[in-house]
Amino acid sequence: MAKSKTIFVCQSCGAQSPKWVGKCASCGTWNTYAEELQQPKVRGGSLAPSAAHLPKPIHEWQATPESRISSGLQEFDRVLGGGFLAGSLVLLGGEPGIGKSTLSLQAALSMAGRKVLYVSGEESGPQISSRANRLSHRNPDCQLLTETQVESILRHTDALRPDLLIVDSVQTLHTELLDAAPGSVSQIRETTAQIMRFAKRSGVPVLLIGHITKDGTIAGPKVLEHMVDVVLQFEGDRHHVFRIVRAQKNRFGSTSEMGIFEMQGQGLKEVSNPSALLLGNRDQRLSGTVTAITLDGARPLLLETQALVSSAVYGTPQRSATGFDLRRLHMLLAVLEKRCGFPLASKDVFLNLTGGIRIDDPAMDLAVVAAIMSSGADVPVSSRVAFAAEVGLTGEIRSVSRIEPRLREAEKLGFEQVFVAHDQLQGLDLKGFKIQISGLKRIGHLEQALIK
Ligand code: TYD
Ligand code: MG
Does ligand 1 lie within 6 Å of residue 96's CB atom? Predict the structure, then answer.
């Protein structure tokens, strides 16, 4: 087969060169040249539109009926927006060892009755087979292929017509059209483009696994994330209980859902009631620990929030937050200092959300403030009390969204009292709840309510 012509293109300004160069002569940037396929020039384009591309009223376009294929894992489906959509391209990114291959293999094996093709360029057949034996599910229609050349993968997929194609990983793929090494910008872009064209043409959904660089972005060009329909991140700390899948981009669903798993000896276990695990031992409460009622997508989540306030050893006090936005913590500390006169200027403050979960819900604010106050004054907060409200810059306590499901979840888990914003009480049917609901106007009132 005749090799197509390739050229080198500066990824920053678009300048072209027949050879690779380190510094772009046109824009002066370094290391921006990547190999690309030379596109044939289109000559003499006519201005007359082709019949296939005429505009027509939006309602006359035939909407394709939505057919979703379940991944067999409820938590995974939740993040996908209900399963894999025909012809969609899903990119799953995550750090090495976090469990991307395990999650995809487990999905492939859980999809009983569905044909799945699992293509691996990272591990050998026996390695994957022994991993599959550890997992509890079996799917006789799951085929395994160890291959890295994209043309060959797509030929096999075309012949097999699976319900789902899984490719582990995009960084190992290469196309025969380019000389660049697998994992390089041009290879990743070209192979993904080929897979995408295949998915759209055949309707086979594809799950692509991608590596993550040190700074947490998916390795390869940013354009990869633009090309695919769904970008998922698999995250969590190896030392923490939970592994969490969340959507960064989803053309067919919400990006606020998370799927929670626990890594065990037999693979990933779905965690459908994370609050019960996250709350830990609630009988012995020490100062600095309070419970926040937050949301993960549509699902309420009760989360233990811990703060430690101690005298600063060095001149500049340290502030650190795990799972919570550090800038937001700084803001809350400033509000506490200014509006309550709570002395924090010479204190180190550490904040930690349990389970290695990262939350950016404003309803966490009140719990964070309560935890800091509790630790600062060394007075424990009752373990039967939970918090859900935002704190404003003037120290006012503000309402949060979806308060009813939050209150119901707290009630279900045996909490006795919830502190919310005073404004939130209007429009709430207080008689419908057994749990005591207390409204607060300012964070100054929180101090009286807690520290007796
Ligand atoms: P892996 O899925 O290969 O991660 P990735 O593809 O993201 O690099 O491996 C995940 C880790 O999980 C690995 O260190 C071994 C561990 N593990 C278990 O604890 N239990 C299991 O059943 C399996 C299959 C893996
Ligand atoms: Mg892997």
Answer: yes
Atom of ligand 1 nearest to the CA of 123: 3
Are 377 and 287 in contact by the 8 Å Cβ rule? The answer is yes
- Is 285 buried (19+), middle (13-18) or exposed (0-12) by CB count in 10 A? middle
Q: Which two tokens stand for residue 144?
A: 């395994």
Q: Name which of 295, 292, 319, 294 is nearest 305 in CA terms.
A: 292
Q: What is the distance, to the nearest Å, from the Cα of residue 406 to the centroid of all Cα atoms in its chain? A: 22
CB 185 within 8 A of CB 34: yes
* Residue-range domain boundaries for the chain: 5-38, 67-272, 276-450
Q: Confirm or reject CATH 3.40.50.1860 for domain 67-272, answering yes or no.
A: no
Atom of ligand 1 nearest to the CA of 263: 19
Contact 139, 114 (CB under 8 A): yes
Worst-scoring range by mean pLDDT, 62-76, 79-93, 134-148?
Answer: 62-76
- Ligand 1 atom at minimal distance to the Cα of residue 209: 6
CATH number corresponding to 276-450: 3.30.230.10
- With a 6 A CB cut-off, is 98 part of the ligand 1 pocket? yes
Q: 267 in ligand 1 pocket by Cβ < 6 Å?
A: yes
pLDDT in tens, 144-198: 999 999 999 999 999 999 999 999 999 999 999 988 888 888 888 899 999 999 9
Q: How far is CA 330 from CA 293, 360, 369, 423, 443, in A?
A: 21, 14, 11, 25, 16
Query: Given this model, what pLDDT does residue 80 score?
Result: 94
Q: How far is the CA of 268 from the centre of ligand 1 (A)?
A: 9
- Burial class of 66 by CB neighbour count within 10 A (0 to 12, 13 to 18, 19+): exposed
Q: How far is the CA of 181 from the centre of ligand 2 (A)?
A: 19
CA 148–ligand 2 middle distance (angstroms): 14
Report CA torsion sign: 86, 91, 96, 97. Answer: negative
Q: Tell me how far the alpha carbon of residue 167 lies from the centroid of ligand 1, in angstroms.
A: 17
* Topology match between the domains 67-272 and 276-450: no
Which residues surround the ion ligand 2 when the cut-off is CB under 5 Å? 101
